[in-house]
């Protein structure tokens, strides 16, 4: 069994299921994952953290909110000016390398941290390194990857966000050139990152075949379901859906007793949804629930009638985002409604997978809802006959083999 040291910005039970599912399947192919990551407060994927060798570094978390805010301010400033977070995780990781026989380093991030530390460890210990970028700065409109507001002044926030973005890009591009291999999540990401390293390969996000599979369950209620957050309306905008439901409601073809739009999400998204649903007069149809642990998601999807994907036109919104929920939607073979059409990779994959519709007009959304609403009334459930051969390539188990192929090739070199 070979050991791979995985250094990442977040890991289950918090977010980043990409690395969590990879670690689930690596041992089946003779690789043992040893993980070091930042401690996060979330508990979304607890099962992916079980029986794993994980070291968590607590940069911010505290039971006292005042102390936590002080820690956040200190760490942010220390990291921005002195690279504190990379130094801390590198020191801890070096101790692991000295105790364990490590064959390779894999570092995963959504911006930069901690690939710089991973790169320095790779050089110091003469270990091959693979960098996995599941998100990049360029995919976000208007520096929205910087979610923290530093001032009540929008002008000052824009300046600070711009400075942070330039620093992140400069750091990332330097370390990218030193990676033996780079993996990422969409064609847009590949094109962007190949400017800095020619050894970039595409490994999509995916679904766990042990959890997500087709299942036909009759339901007394027609539900349009969304599982996840909305970062901003520029990136994920449900307005087309609400406009269509408003129109159908005025036509008298929807009944709030058997037609529901359900969001499983965080508090910020709940506020966004509440405001939009009131704006379009559809709040009677909308339910907002708390985010659930990943083990509950398959059941929610199986009982749904339409699965909702939120995005926006790639030219003005997010670019190249192929979210995990899309692939989990594909696997359960339920109709997918994507609003608004991104006119990019999501639309292309929806067409190739034959999984639903990527809409850019209210009329398209209305027609699609009524088509599936009618199907549900006749059968008690909906089902989407997808292109199974196309969908199977996104299995997390198959994707683990793709990573291992890269690992083995680097060791042979």
Query: Main β-sheet, in a few words?
Result: 7 strands, parallel
Number of helices: 14
Kindly provide the radius of gyration, computed on alpha-carbon positions and rounded to a whole number of angstroms.
22 Å
Helical amount: 40-55%
State the end-to-end distance: 19 Å
Give the DSSP E fraction (strand runs of 2 or more residues): 15-25%
Shape label: globular
List the uncertain runs: none
Structural class: alpha/beta
Which sequence of strands runs across the widest sheet? 3-2-1-4-5-6-7
Mean of residue pLDDT?
93
Q: Would you count the extended β strands for me? A: 13
- What is the ordering of alpha helices and beta strands? EHEEHHEHEHEHEEHEHEHEHEHEHHH
């Amino acid at each position: 069994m070979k050991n791979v040291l995985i250094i990442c910005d977040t890991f289950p039970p918090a977010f980043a299921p990409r690395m969590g599912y990879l670690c689930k399947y690596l041992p089946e192919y003779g690789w043992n994952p040893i993980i070091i990551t930042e401690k996060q407060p979330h508990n979304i994927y607890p099962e992916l953290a079980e029986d794993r060798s994980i070291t968590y570094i607590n940069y911010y978390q505290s039971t006292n909110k005042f102390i936590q805010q002080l820690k956040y301010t200190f760490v942010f400033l220390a990291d921005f000016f002195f690279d504190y977070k990379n130094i801390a995780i590198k020191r801890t990781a070096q101790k692991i390398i000295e105790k364990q026989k490590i064959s390779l380093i894999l570092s995963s991030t959504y911006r930069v941290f901690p690939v710089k530390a991973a790169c320095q460890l790779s050089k110091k210990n003469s270990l091959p390194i693979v960098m996995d970028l599941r998100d990049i700065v360029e995919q976000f409109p208007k520096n929205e990857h910087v979610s923290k507001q530093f001032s009540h002044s929008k002008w000052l926030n824009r300046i600070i966000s711009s400075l942070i973005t330039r620093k992140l890009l400069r750091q990332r591009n330097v370390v990218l050139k030193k990676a033996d291999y780079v993996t990422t999540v969409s064609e847009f990401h590949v094109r962007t990152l190949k400017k800095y390293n020619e050894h970039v390969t595409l490994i999509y996000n995916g679904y766990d075949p042990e959890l997500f599979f087709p299942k036909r369950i009759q339901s007394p209620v027609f539900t349009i379901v969304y599982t996840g957050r909305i970062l901003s309306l520029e990136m994920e905008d449900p307005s087309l859906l609400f406009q269509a439901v408003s129109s159908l409601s005025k036509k008298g073809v929807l009944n709030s007793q058997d037609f529901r739009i359900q969001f499983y999400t965080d508090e910020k998204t709940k506020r966004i949804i509440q405001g939009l649903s009131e704006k379009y007069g559809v709040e009677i149809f909308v339910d907002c629930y708390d985010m659930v642990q990943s083990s509950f998601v398959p059941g929610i999807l199986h009982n749904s009638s339409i699965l909702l994907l939120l995005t926006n036109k790639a030219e003005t919104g997010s670019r190249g985002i192929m979210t995990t929920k899309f692939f989990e939607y594909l696997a359960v073979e339920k109709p997918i409604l994507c609003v608004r059409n991104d006119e990019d990779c999501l639309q292309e994959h929806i067409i190739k997978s034959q999984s639903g519709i990527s809409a850019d007009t209210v009329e398209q959304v209305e027609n699609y809802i009524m088509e599936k609403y009618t199907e549900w009334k006749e059968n008690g459930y909906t089902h989407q006959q997808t292109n199974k051969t196309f969908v199977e390539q996104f299995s997390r188990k198959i994707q683990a083999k793709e990573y291992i192929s890269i690992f083995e090739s680097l060791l042979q070199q």
